[in-house]
Amino acid sequence: MAKFSLRRYEDQARVSLVAALASAVTFVGLLVLVVRRFSLQELAVFYGQPTRIAILVATAVTALLAVIGFGLGINSVGQRRNEKQGLSWAGFFVAAAVLVLTICVFTFFFLRGESVGR
Questions:
Q1: SS3 readout for the chain
Q2: Tell me: the pLDDT tens digits for 65-117?
Q3: What's the count of helices (H) and strands (E) in the chain, helices before strands?
């Protein structure tokens, strides 16, 4: 059995799916941070400084993992030596969906966020 190497397209496909699923998990955390502070009456997200930092960090980590999953998925999907095409496609599409949703949630927070407290 061969060792793990990102030069092998099968390993890229596996890492793509793992990174995409990890980005989905961190996206859920980001969504929880934003939704818990969302007020339906004012249509705004009220936050303090620690919450703002947590949302920014969660957005950055989610976007980074999604970009890694997207990039490795798209790189390995069309290669002849890749016997795990399904993993490549799954990693690509999950990462793309999470990346788009992350951008949407962060844009909503950026536009509708209201700082309160110190």
A1: CCCCCCCCHHHHHHHHHHHHHHHHHHHHHHHHHHHHCEECCCCEEEECHHHHHHHHHHHHHHHHHHHHHHHHHHHHCCCCCCCCHHHHHHHHHHHHHHHHHHHHHHHHHHHHEEECCC
A2: 999 999 999 998 888 888 888 888 999 999 999 999 999 999 999 999 998 87
A3: 3, 3
pTM of the model: 0.90
Query: Residue 60: how many CB atoms within 10 A of its CB?
Result: 14
Which residue, 5, 23, 6, 10, is CA-closest to 100? 23
